[in-house]
């Protein structure tokens, strides 16, 4: 059925204005009739002639106007097509499967090929495939890709043409997929180059500290000290100048540096060789010079970058020095730190920390002590030492213990059954949270990671927190601690607490059971004084012996039963030698209560095998796989465990896998060893 073509919109209203004018004139004519009949009659004749002329023009010109509009529309569509074809932005229209329906000249110029219709765009640009195309109306996907030598950013949009099949007689779209894919490209090669240049020229603030300045100066003759300082300055200045940076000496053992981001990348590439270069400075000094480097990378302000550098240098020193730490907004990276930090003979720091701890305890009514999860003898012994210090000040003291291991049970039962100790000395996490209030102080021993503590919520609930630990710090620390005493060179937490007890009070006296507990903690962490022992370790042991530590009792306490001994033998017998120097053993289905302890003991035993530089024992326990890593002096097992999300000491470390697939865990450990060996970290 043929329908009349009608106008609408503003054009229809415009063509009706003569008729509206005629109506207005008729109303005016009525008013004139009341004033003058002759004038009214004359106006009536004029209006009739006007209406006749308007009607003739309307019906005659209507078809002409419609014809002109159709011609304009056709010309306008052609102009649009021409403009789109010559558009400076590469533009193309695709089917939902990637077939090209239409592309303008700029798009074909980018492809640099005789692109034919119905050809899939993925043939030329693999990144532009149907897997990345949007599927909903108005949805836009943006991605970058390289084509030839140029970089492009593609903006891909889903354009709905619902009802297309009803109106279009030549092209039929699949049912339910009435849409096209529109793509336009933007050349971002130059933009990316400017971004890279801007990033490379960004200034990086850094701090360099000489870790052992006093010790090095004391080990050389006085007349040579100025020469030694000059040689150290020269090494640092030459290294920083070699990467186009500036080094400014702040104090006798501190330097401030400014370098470009691209220079930092060079330093990272050579693994901060300054750390090893400065150790070659030797003019008779018996102690090698070691440095700590802290760099702050910030995309915001230089102040933020400098603050990051201060945090990084503090962390490097807390981890024992001889390493570089880089902090940015995303996290922290560590370089170096392969050697054990030398123990300092001075006890000034221990005395200062002891006095500070005493002052904090005196201001509170209650003290809650906790160590790490799955508490060992060292953690327990350190907690007992802090208990004695707080109890001597007549404070209410509690120790948080959730799980009691087989090794720890004899000690725990001895204190539990002793009438000299309160019944609520040992509490669990829930009880500790209920006891904590504003007048409570929390002391954390043998760990500095909040997630490793027995009750992490307790740290968020209390403001007065003290931390005493001998493990190297990582980027996860207890941030709100009012007192932090972390000494990576110490053999154990019990050694640190033993030193603190000697300064915290003149009349403080440990009884035999307390001294024996702390002595046992030192023995466990030093493998019977074979590893990581220094002068201060034996001094702490001597102090505990003077307090009445019973060595025979400790030896009986640490003995294994027959089931545990056989389990340890089974773990050792499963060991394989990897890369000729690493012993890797598995502890599966051991049938004992605390397999992780057996794993640690087995790792120590494996070091007695000739040519084994490091041992790793993996044991399954409570839905996880625990790794015990040990070495003597050639391999830093701590940085290996840090790659696996753990930590510890250079010769004693550990990590966890949150699954029970032993083959997968061993494969991950081997892959980490391979990568770090290739990178030169171990």
């Amino acid at each position: 059925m043929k329908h009349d073509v009608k106008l609408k919109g503003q054009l229809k209203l415009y063509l009706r204005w003569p008729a509206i004018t005629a109506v207005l004139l008729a109303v005016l004519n009525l008013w004139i009739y009341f004033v003058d009949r002759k004038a009214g009659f004359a106006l009536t004749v004029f209006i009739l002639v006007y209406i006749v002329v308007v009607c003739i023009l309307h019906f005659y010109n209507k078809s002409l106007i419609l014809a002109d509009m159709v011609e304009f529309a056709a010309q306008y569509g052609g102009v649009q097509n021409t403009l789109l074809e010559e558009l400076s932005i590469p533009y193309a229209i695709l089917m939902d499967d990637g077939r090209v329906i239409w592309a303008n000249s700029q798009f074909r110029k980018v492809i640099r090929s005789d692109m034919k219709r119905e050809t899939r765009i993925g043939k030329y640009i693999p990144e532009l495939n149907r897997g990345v195309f949007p599927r909903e109306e108005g949805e836009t996907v943006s991605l970058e890709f390289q084509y030839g030598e140029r970089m492009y950013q593609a903006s891909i949009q889903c354009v709905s043409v619902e009802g297309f099949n009803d109106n279009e007689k030549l092209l039929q779209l699949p049912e339910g997929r009435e849409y096209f894919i529109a793509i336009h490209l933007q050349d971002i090669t130059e933009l990316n180059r400017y971004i890279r240049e801007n990033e490379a020229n960004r200034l990086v603030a850094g701090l360099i500290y000489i870790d052992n300045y006093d010790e090095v100066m004391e080990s050389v003759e006085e007349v040579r000290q100025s020469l030694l300082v000059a040689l150290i300055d020269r090494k640092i200045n030459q290294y920083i100048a070699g990467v186009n940076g500036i080094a400014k000496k702040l104090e006798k053992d501190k330097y401030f540096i400014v370098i470009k981001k691209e220079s930092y990348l060079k330093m990272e590439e050579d693994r901060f060789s300054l750390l090893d270069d400065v150790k070659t400075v030797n003019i008779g000094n018996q102690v090698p010079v070691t440095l700590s480097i802290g760099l702050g990378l910030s995309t915001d302000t230089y102040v933020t970058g400098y603050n990051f550098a201060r945090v990084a240098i503090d962390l490097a020193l807390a981890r024992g020095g001889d390493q570089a730490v880089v902090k940015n907004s995303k996290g922290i990276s560590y370089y170096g730190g392969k050697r054990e930090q030398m123990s300092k003979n001075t006890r000034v720091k221990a005395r200062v920390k002891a006095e500070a701890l005493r002052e904090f305890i005196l201001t509170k009514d209650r003290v809650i002590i906790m160590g790490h999860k799955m508490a060992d003898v060292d953690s327990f012994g350190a907690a007992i030492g802090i208990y004695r210090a707080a109890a001597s000040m007549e404070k209410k003291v509690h120790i948080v213990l959730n799980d009691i291991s087989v090794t720890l049970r004899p000690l725990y039962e001895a204190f539990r059954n002793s009438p000299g100790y309160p019944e609520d000395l040992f509490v669990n996490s829930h009880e500790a949270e209920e006891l904590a209030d504003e007048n409570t102080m929390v002391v954390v021993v043998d760990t500095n990671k909040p997630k490793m503590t027995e009750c992490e919520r307790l740290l968020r609930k209390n403001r007065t927190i003290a931390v005493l630990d001998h493990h190297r710090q990582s980027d996860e620390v207890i941030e709100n601690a009012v007192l932090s005493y972390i000494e990576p060179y110490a053999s154990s937490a019990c050694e640190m607490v033993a030193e603190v007890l000697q300064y915290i009070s003149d009349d403080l006296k440990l009884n035999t059971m307390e001294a024996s507990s702390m002595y046992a903690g030192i023995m466990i962490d030093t493998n019977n004084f074979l590893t990581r022992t220094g002068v201060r370790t034996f001094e702490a042991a001597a102090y505990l012996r003077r307090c009445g530590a019973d060595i025979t009792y400790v030896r009986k306490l640490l003995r294994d039963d027959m089931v545990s001994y056989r389990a340890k033998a089974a773990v050792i017998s499963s060991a394989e030698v990897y890369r000729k120097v690493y012993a890797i053993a598995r502890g599966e289905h051991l049938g004992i209560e605390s397999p992780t302890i057996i794993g640690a003991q087995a790792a120590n035993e494996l070091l007695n095998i000739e040519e084994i530089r490091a041992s790793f024992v993996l044991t399954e326990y409570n839905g996880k796989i625990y790794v015990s890593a040990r070495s003597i002096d050639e391999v830093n097992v701590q940085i290996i465990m840090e790659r696996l999300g753990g930590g510890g000491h250079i010769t004693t470390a550990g990590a966890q896998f949150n699954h029970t697939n032993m083959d997968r865990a061993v494969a991950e450990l081997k892959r980490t060893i391979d990568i770090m060996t290739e990178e030169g970290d171990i």
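The mean pLDDT is 84. Residues 61 and 410 are 112 Å apart (CA to CA).
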